[in-house]
Amino acid sequence: MSTDLTPVIAASARWLLAAYPPPAGALNRALAETQARQAAALAAALRFPTALDVELLHLLSPGGSHRLDGLTGHDPHPDDTAWRTWVDETVVSWAACFLADPSLAARANRPDHGDLRRLALPGPRDSEAAALLRHPDLLEAVAALHRPELLELLSVGDAALT
């Protein structure tokens, strides 16, 4: 069995970028993609913390993007169905929480999650490139889906650190 979260991270980030696209331009696209991937990677690491969790994910597969698409009114192109099966709703919801609230991303980050500066400490250029992707009001419907579980996980994690 695979313990690789790359398919879920890539699909979840791709969904976020499709639903909340960056302004035109290659640099905007690259900056927004970096932030979406960092948010999805952090969310996936928290959602599937052990090798067994990842193996179960691969065995049972993520839920796909159907509910998220309906919630946001995003009508996928028929050719987009294959990658959408790897979207995990909870990962996308938690990633939306991190994008809307950089302080939450900073609180969730641990040293083993890597460098998440663009996510947790976005500069003006990062914020401009991801204006829709980071807009709290636009993200609210998606972020609210699984925010209580994330906040509970982080409060338990914070308590374990003290």
Provide a concise account of the structure shown:
With 162 residues, the chain is an all-alpha fold. It has helices at residues 6-19, 26-47, 51-60, 66-72, 81-84, 89-100, 102-108, 117-120, 124-129, 136-161.
Overall description:
The protein has 10 helices and no strands. With 162 residues, it is an all-alpha fold. The longest helix is centred in the C-terminal third of the chain and has 26 residues.
Q: Which key terms come to mind for this protein?
A:
globular; 162 residues; mainly alpha; 69% helix
Percent of residues in beta strands?
under 5%
Q: Sheet bearing the most strands, described?
A: none
Shape: globular
Unreliable spans are none
Beta strands, count: 0
Distance between the termini: 35 Å
Radius of gyration: 15 Å
**Structural category:** mainly alpha
Helix content: 55-70%
